[in-house]
Amino acid sequence: xxxxxxxxxxxxxxxxxxxxxxxxxxxxxxxxxxxxxxxxxxxxxxxxxxxxxxxxxxxxxxxxxxxxxxxxxxxxxxxxxxxxxxxxxxxxxxxxxxxxxxxxxxxxxxxxxxxxxxxxxxxxxxxxxxxxxxxxxxxxxxxxxxxxxxxxxxxxxxxxxxxxxxxxxxxxxxxxxxxxxxxxxxxxxxxxxxxxxxxxxxxxxxxxxxxxxxxxxxxxxxxxxxxxxxxxxxxxxxxxxxxxxxxxxxxxxxxxxxxxxxxxxxxxxxxxxxxxxxxxxxxxxxxxxxxxxxxxxxxxxxxxxxxxxxxxxxxxxxxxxxxxxxxxxxxxxxxxxxxxxxxxxxxxxxx
Length: 351
Ligand code: ADP
Ligand code: MG
Fold this sequence. Notes:
Layout: H1 12-15, H2 17-25, E1 35-37, E2 45-46, E3 52-62, H3 74-90, E4 95-105, H4 111-127, E5 131-139, E6 145-155, E7 170-174, H5 179-196, H6 208-215, H7 223-229, E8 236-239, H8 244-255, E9 258-262, H9 270-279, H10 283-289, E10 296-300, H11 305-308, E11 314-321, E12 327-330, E13 336-338
The protein binds adenosine-5'-diphosphate (ADP) and magnesium ion.
Adenosine-5'-diphosphate is lined by residues 21, 25, 39-42, 101-103, 132, 134-137.
């Protein structure tokens, strides 16, 4: 929950909608040449380059469904709400340039709480060099709602879709998997401990990487440049928001191919392995179904393998097969298990 360090808080009502928008957005500077008009008119104006294509993506974050304010500081929430959208832009192999942010807030939030949210949004906008060009502000009778839209650009014909994977291509993942989910397990556990004993001081140090991956994820802005430098052209790409298995299935369904994924190849951080032991969870299951890693999953031609094989950011975890062969996990013991989409999903309780 938001806790103000000062005694006095400012109510949203005292500022009025326009005063509030102006107050929250006044520190955002325009950085992109393509932003012709940002906040302040009926619509933003973005220039178009005839050699490029625009990509647009949007995501909703709802309190109680996607985040829990009892352990998610508002500044981190603001940051993460931008990252999840930028990750989708990078997954098209595009560069994000503009964002819009729409919020629905109840009057239990003072202006100071929204200032923190916008601090996080501003930090992400600075680091990823995107302009905040608009949004909408309205009231909510329930929780906090945040909707972010990101705009990006890519040279004509260079966008990478989910549908381009070919038989025999290699399946490659960036970074490591499962840490954000384990960070959530740690935070949920500490929340329960805190309920019983509000004076307890959690020692999160052994879980620092996990908690950071959950509370302050980053998007892989480095990968399209890295692949360009290595002269590797990915054939299909997706970001890992729901867990490896559901993303693999998306690529396979869209590309009309099958896939063999090797359990022993899945990259895991040592903190994920030790936390899984502690929580009595299977690390492969966590990597497959955990979600919120915001890594990129892509396919490349086997011809490109020598160019990527020594790269510490990239791990080959499987290969693409004929559609008839299906989608399988090959376990460490060599058993072939059909893969199912059990990725994290906000609707999972209703299924
Ligand atoms: P309109 O009534 O035309 O929708 P608004 O009063 O909602 O206009 O918004 C005025 C300007 O402020 C617009 O440029 C809009 O995009 C921007 N804006 C509104 N809410 C937000 C917000 N939460 N964050 C950033 N910009 C916002
Ligand atoms: Mg409006």
